[in-house]
UniProtKB/TrEMBL annotation:
Protein name as annotated: Acyltransferase
Keyword vocabulary terms for this entry: Acyltransferase, Membrane, Transferase, Transmembrane, Transmembrane helix
The keyword Acyltransferase is assigned to this record: yes
UniProt organism field: Aerosakkonema funiforme FACHB-1375
Transmembrane segments: 12-32, 52-73, 93-113, 143-163, 170-189, 195-220, 232-251, 257-279, 286-308, 328-350
């Protein structure tokens, strides 16, 4: 979920398009999740959107790993030493200024809609510096992503060190830690307070496989300029086997928890298929227009992710109280208004962010 990847390699269009599609799925899910009236269509779209949202978040973690190793692969293959301190500084500089701006804008929105309260000062402070995860979040539940992606970047040098820069070892470690995390969830049981903590949204263990898969595939793609037939075949076989199990469980009315292993089984197939589909140029003008929109959304997916949910929560509640028409027309009106306001909000946020980054960069250059 990171825009303007700074690397010496050619920018891959399908990366931006994939990120755009993933953030669109998350916007879709969160709209219906936060819509105040749970009428039938909203409940149905909320349930199905949740699956889309989970899959989209997984894609972002794969992407984070992919971008990292895709950029570093040539250095490693040439036997050059990676300056991890400089790499981490660059990641933190990319993450934190935008995050702090998102914190400030979220607080402003909460004050504007009279919903700003500090219930726990410690949790608020942890949230403000991006260390609260989901469990201790006090500003915006969506900020859990920042905590976990921060953990991912802090762990990345250690992953490379432990695996001695070998892609196969990185993938193997990802599978091992990923499965151990799922087993830990099963061991503590769904009634335990640690269950949800381990399952999702709180620490990198929940997405360790996705991160390592991305790191592995970044190497592969850098070497082959595409995914190999082996990658596609294995991803497809694993997906089909897991899908059969998924359908069987649905038929038997067994409670399906996507993050209890189906994420590991489905994510490789989703990612590799998206890369194949979105990597193709198309001569249809309208389709190209749609792909261009996805690319723009992908470029700014990090900003969109950080700021959209507080706007949804406050604006949808406000609109729902004041628009007094039938349920379904009201849903449509709220959808349109929210989309328009969100686009304007993102545009303003990005403009302010650019000015802020320019000033920070200028100040740093003067001091050096």
């Amino acid at each position: 979920m990171f825009n303007k990847t700074t690397n010496s390699r050619e920018r891959l269009q399908w990366i931006d398009r994939t990120k755009g599609l993933a953030i669109l799925a998350i916007l879709f899910f969160h709209f219906f999740q936060n819509y105040p009236e749970q009428i039938n269509i909203v409940s149905m779209l909320n349930r199905n959107g949740a699956r889309l949202g989970y899959a989209a978040v997984d894609i972002f973690f794969v992407m984070a790993g992919f971008n990292t190793s895709y950029v570093l692969a040539s250095l490693i293959q040439n036997g050059e030493k990676i300056n991890w301190i400089a790499w981490l500084k660059k990641r933190l500089f990319r993450l934190y200024p935008t995050y702090f701006l998102a914190v400030l804008s979220t607080i402003c929105i909460s004050i504007l809609f009279n919903q700003f309260h500090i219930k726990n000062p410690l949790n608020f402070a942890l949230s403000a510096v991006g260390l609260a995860g989901y469990k201790f979040q006090a500003i915006n539940q969506g900020f859990w992503f920042f905590t976990v992606i921060l953990e991912a970047y802090l762990l990345t040098p250690l992953i490379f060190y432990v695996c001695r820069n070998k892609p196969n070892r990185i993938l193997g470690l990802g599978i091992l830690i990923g499965l151990l995390t799922k087993l830990a969830c099963l061991a503590v049981g769904h009634k335990s307070e640690f269950y949800l903590f381990l399952l999702q949204n709180n620490f990198i263990g929940s997405y360790f496989f996705q991160l390592c898969l991305g790191l592995y595939w970044g190497f592969i793609y850098a070497s082959n300029k595409s995914f190999r037939r082996t990658d596609i075949n294995i991803s497809t076989i694993v997906f089909i086997v897991a899908l059969i199990l998924y359908i069987w469980m649905a038929i038997k009315h067994i409670n399906i928890v996507y993050m209890l292993g189906f994420d590991i089984a489905f994510t490789p197939f989703f990612f590799v298929m998206l890369s194949l589909i979105l990597n193709k140029d198309n001569h249809n003008r309208w389709l190209n227009y749609g792909l261009s929109i996805l690319s723009i959304m992908g470029i700014y997916s990090y900003q969109i992710y950080l700021i959209h949910q507080p706007l949804y929560i406050t604006l949808l509640y406000y609109l729902n109280k004041r628009i007094q028409i039938a349920q379904y027309p009201k849903l449509l009106v709220c959808l349109i208004i929210t989309a328009v306001v969100l686009i304007a909000y993102i545009r303003a946020f990005v403009l302010i962010e650019k000015v802020m980054i320019r000033k920070i960069t200028g100040t740093a250059a003067k001091q050096s």
